[in-house]
Structures are given as structure tokens and as C-alpha cells.
Amino acid sequence: MNLIRHHIAAQQTAIAERTGTVFDPATGTAQHEVAFATPAEVDAAVAAAKATLPGWRATGLVRRADVFFRLRQLLVERQDELAAIITSEHGKVLSDARGEISRGIENVEFAAGLLHLLKGERAEQVARGVDVHSTKQPVGVVAAITPFNFPVMVPLWMTASAIACGNTVVLKPSEKDPSAALFLAGLYEEAGLPAGVLNVVQGDRVAVDALLDAPDVRAISFVGSTPIARSIYERASAAGKRVQALGGAKNHMVVMPDADLDGAADAAVSAAYGSAGERCMAVSVLVAVGDQVADALVSRIAARTTRLVIGPGTDPASEMGPLISAAHRDKVAAYVAGAAAEGATVVVDGTARRFDGEGFFTGVSLIDHVHPGMKVYDEEIFGPVLAVVRVQSYDEAVDLINRNPFGNGTAIFTRDGGTARSFEYDIEIGMVGVNVPIPVPVGAFSFGGWRDSLFGDAHIYGPESVHFYTRSKVTTTRWPDHTSSQVDLGFPSNH
Ligand code: NAD
Predict the structure, then answer these.
(1) Bridge-based pairing state of the strands 242-246 and 454-455
(2) In Å, how far from its chain's centre is CA 226?
(3) What is the pLDDT of residues 279-296, one digit of tens each?
(4) What does the domain layout of the chain look like in residue ranges?
(5) Which CATH code fits 251-434?
(6) Exposure winner among 84, 293, 364, 461, fewest CB in 10 A?
């Protein structure tokens, strides 16, 4: 079986003392082995990144920008190849894989504007003959630790800005779909990035722990589930590193009585079941305001679920592929079974649906009369399961969402501008959609949730990433005409 290795200083290497299996989720068959990095291999990757840092930092900004212009072109030209890699290891349908590449390209386009992003500020004559200016300097070696569900987009969220800002990177992709990161590293180097600026280590917790403990790693960008995000934030920040750790989600979509109910049903089906619900911005809770709205939506959504085409991601007819693993499929089934046991109404039970072959497929599920306290509401399922919570008023909807521990995304469907404006003002969530079910910000803005969906201060990609991946330095300058000696022990005053 093919062994997937690390990419350190542009060399593919691996001791492969321990390995994992990479499956094809559509067939359930093992297709590759992936090497799990030892702490020594992680140290070698960090050392490669550290060794390249002075040269990359010294590279002129226009030359740096060239890499991103070329990378963008390569990503466009090679997107079908890259999408095929994503689909073969993740399982999502090819159109969705191309979608994540196109969203990742936005981050590359943003990074190509690095000349603007890295401009500092200057104030002349703050006191007589004294000028002040600020500069943004790279933090150093950055570790990027990414989840399985976006094997191209999330690595691009991190690497594009980090590298543009003059840092060097060690990327640790998910061990479940590790090949895309290697392909990406190859494209970066084809675009002109020097060897050692972007290194990839494969592996599991052992590799992550080694990155967290490496003294030369100065900043950690993490995206994954909430318990791991929280522990990474605590451990790395205690070690004095800069950390942003994005976690899981429970995204609520509110439907007001005045909404276009057919449009809302289409949006709910697309946002709940797209990519088999394995998106951190998937809608997992539909909040129907009023029983009439709830009844109308449940029947419309149930009807739409019967028409969804579930099959291998490589089949152009498929709208939804398999889940990432057999274990995850069983976990999703347990949530649906548990919801029935807890008194919710399982309107559509996709877990009962049988598929030919050994692939990790499941059908889509719709569960009505869900409320807080039920596991299906309280926990992130990360599968094609939509829970419906019935509330009687707008205020009740807002209160429900603001009390949820997660705070990634939310959306409201309404025709009323005043209600939409109030929602935007009242809701304590990082990303808000108005008649937009998956409000992932375009690359010129930053992405991030509140509460248990993000540990750390900085949101990811966009302007906040420039802040995260740089340290600011302020220089106060006087070029004195030194004609007379003057000693002053007082605190420097500009007055
Ligand atoms: P995960 O937390 O299991 O893994 C994420 C990364 O952490 C992987 O690289 C994995 O190898 C590593 N890891 C796993 N266990 C670890 C441990 N005990 N110690 C240290 N590192 C460990 O997440 P996943 O299953 O790959 O991805 C799905 C999760 O990611 C979902 O919860 C989803 O909501 C979340 N996610 C969040 C966002 C966001 O932007 N907030 C985006 C995508 C995914």
C-alpha cells in the first residue's frame, strides 16, 4: 500500500514507526497508509522552518506576492486533480470539493495583496524633531493543525496569510485525509516558495503535542473539535505561544413567520445536508417561530429529503457523499436513535436506510420537537441530521441561541428589515446570515465564532490573520542636531 509521508524542506520522508490507514469512504476500503510523525520528525520540520525563516523574511514583498499570484493560477489549473484527491479521501462530492478549493483561493488572493496588508503607520513630529512609525514583523515559525472536513480550504486559511506575513510554517493535516496537504505544499513550491517555508508533518496527537512543546514554534493556528481546541489553547498559551483554536459548532437557522417558506426549506436542506453535514457552518438546528411555520417547514423539508441523491462523490449525479468513517456513521446513528428515546419526533430516519457495498453512507435525518437538554440538541453531531426546535416568538429564538455554548454561525430568514437588523444586533454569534444559511465570510473579512467555537482573540484569515501572524513594533526617531548637552531623568513627554 502507498505510504503517505511528511514534506520537510521539500523532501518526502518518513520513519513510519507508527502509521494510520486512509480509507476511501465511498467503498470503505483501505487505500493508503499514512506515517505518524515521531517527536524527532516534528523537531526536524520545525528546524527546517526555523532555518528558512531569515531568508523568507528577507525576501522582498513584491517577490513574496509573486508566489501567491502563481499559486492562484496553479490552484485554478489543477483544481480537478486536487478535487479528486479530496473526494477520494474525504468522500464529499466533486462539486463540493471544487467549492472548497474556490473558497481557499480567496485566501490566496487576499495574501497576494500583502504589500497593502503589511503597511505600517507613521506620525511625523509627535514632538519637536521626533517621528514615530510602526512596522509588522513575522512572529516566526507557525504551526497549523487542521481538521478532516476541509483538507484544502482550512490549510489555505492558515498558510496563505502566515507565509505572506513572512513566517514559515509546519502544517499538520488530519490523518484521515492527508494527501491534499502534500499536493498543496508541492503547488506552493512550484509557485516559487523556497524549500522549508512550508513543511508538512503527518500524524496524530503525538505530532500535535510535539508542535505544542517545540520552543521554536511561536504561534499555533488550530481548527477542529471543541474539546481539542480548548486543550490546545490552554496548553500552548501556558507555554507562551500565540494561539487561535477554532472549535465545533451548533448553527441555528431562525425562520420567521413572514419568511418565504419554500426558500427557507431549500436553504435548510442545502445547509444541513450538504457535505453530509460535515461542515462547521452546517445548519444543525432549525428554529421555527410558531407552530404553523414549524409544520409547514417540516413537511417541505421532509418532501425534499426524498429527492436527494446520495452516492459516491465521484458520480456527477450524487448530491451527498458518505461520512468520513464507519465509526462516525455509527455515532450519527446513535444520536438519531437517542433522540427518539428522549421523546423527539424522528420525521425522517436516514440512519435506517441501507446502501449497497461497504461505503460509509447514511441517509439524511430530520427530527422535530427537539429542545435543549436532549443530546441531539446539546452536542455537535457533525452529520446529516437536522433538529427542529419550535419557539413561539423572536425573543425566544434569540434567547435559545444566545444560551447555546457554541457561537459559530447563525442565520435568520425573514422579509422584514427591522427584524433582521434587530437579530444582527441582539445575537451573540460570530457570523450571521440574513437569508443566507451558510454565512462564511468572503476572504477579505475574517472567520471566527464566539464562546466555545473559538479560543483566543483573533479570528482566522482576512485582516485579523495579519494581526495574528505579525508582531507590531513601534519606533520613535529623533535625528538631533546635537549642539548642547542635556540630561533629563523625567519620563519622555511629547508636550
Ligand atoms: P478533531 O478535533 O478530531 O481533529 C482536528 C485536528 O486535531 C486533527 O489534525 C487531529 O489529528 C488533531 N487531533 C485529534 N485528536 C487530538 C488530540 N487528542 N490531541 C491533539 N490533537 C488532536 O476534528 P475533526 O474531526 O478532524 O474535524 C471536525 C471538527 O472540526 C468538528 O468539530 C468541526 O465543527 C470542527 N471544525 C471547525 C471549524 C471552524 O472553523 N470553527 C472548521 C472546520 C471544522
Answers:
(1) antiparallel
(2) 12
(3) 999 999 999 999 999 999
(4) 2-247+453-475, 251-434
(5) 3.40.309.10
(6) 84
Q: Does the Cβ of 267 fall within 6 Å of ligand 1? A: no
Mutation pick for ligand 1 pocket among 148, 211, 212 (CB with most ligand atoms within 8 Å): 148
Residue pLDDT, tens place only, 322-378? 999 999 999 999 999 999 999 999 999 999 999 999 999 999 999 999 999 999 999
Choose the residue to mutate in 100, 107, 208 for probing ligand 1, maximizing ligand atoms within 8 Å of C-beta.
208
Q: Residue 208: what residue type?
A: V
172 CB near ligand 1 (under 6 Å): yes
Q: Identify each DSSP E strand in 139-216 by its residue range.
A: 141-145, 168-172, 198-200
Ligand 1 geometric centre to CA of 55 (Å): 32
- What are the C-alpha distances in Å from 339 to residues 304, 334, 360, 369? 22, 9, 21, 10
* Shortest-distance atom of ligand 1 to CA 380: 32
Q: Which CATH superfamily is domain 2-247+453-475 in?
A: Aldehyde Dehydrogenase; Chain A, domain 1 (3.40.605.10)
Distances (CA, A) of 257 to 261, 294, 350, 426: 8, 9, 28, 19
- Catalytic-role residue among 44, 191, 265, 280: 280
Q: Is 228 in the pocket of ligand 1 (CB under 6 A)?
A: yes
CB 426: neighbour CB atoms within 10 A?
15
